[in-house]
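Extended Data, record Quercetin 2,3-dioxygenase
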Amino acid sequence: MTRPSHLEVSRMTMEYATRYRTRSHLPPDAGTPYFVEKGMGDRAHLFGDLITVYAGGEQTGNTFNFFTCEGPKGKIIPAHLHADTYEVFFVTQGAVRLFVEDLEGRQQEKLLTSGDFGFVPRNCPHAYRIERHHSQIVGVAARPGGTFERFFESLGTPTDELGLPAAPYVPAPDRFGTVPQRYDVRFLPDHEWRV
């Protein structure tokens, strides 16, 4: 098997217009093979994190998404759940503490470091806290009816920057109420972690 030349690979990396962005490296619909250079997916800032989407509902026929989350050492991300979505946390660098509660109310926490994997079934409250600067999580989420990756830029703010936000982007409180119906994300503001 011969490897494509640099010129051929360059031709395979294209820019598209999607219903979400005027410029994207992700095609606007399923069925198109594509390649995305490191960091060049659709990016958004939310809290202190940079979320980069590499594949979403449009590209996968609403079957799964694939994204990264990079962030500084910081505070816990608000507790939330996904009624119909299964979510994967795979840490590629740094350290991330994952908090999760099962359907019987048993809580666990686990420090995940490079190469560690965490799985959160649907309907299980969860949260995470980045424990080391420059940590990165690879996330995959799937549910029968669609994907939720556009939640990050809808609640957060789209960006063309490649790095973390200069200051945390914290949405106005009323914006949290608009996401559960569209993205299968329900925040649990009164949830307490006992672990």
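Summary. The longest strand covers residues 86-93.
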